[in-house]
Amino acid sequence: MKLTLMFREYCGLCHDMRNQLQPYQAEFGFELEIVEIDDFPDLELKYNELVPVLLHGEHEICHWHLDEQALRDYLQAA
């Protein structure tokens, strides 16, 4: 399974979410793709004010802050 984190290098919340995801990666073994949205105008337009955004495909798991319960529920159901 691959999750995607919509990210900005200068965004403190983005770094926090990336770091908070590490134990879940170890536990559930998912791949994490980091996408710098400022490199993609269409993604910047879509996710601008929401970053960080954690996705599985087009499904948004959470944004701004890691919702640990939503993530755990989603990963256990997958």
UniProtKB/TrEMBL annotation:
SUPFAM superfamilies named in the record: Thioredoxin-like (SSF52833)
UniProt xrefs under Gene3D superfamilies: Glutaredoxin
Lineage: Bacteria, Pseudomonadati, Pseudomonadota, Betaproteobacteria, Neisseriales
Stored InterPro entries: Glutaredoxin-like, Thioredoxin-like_sf
Pfam families cross-referenced by the UniProt entry: Glrx-like
Name used for this protein in its record: Glutaredoxin-like domain (DUF836)
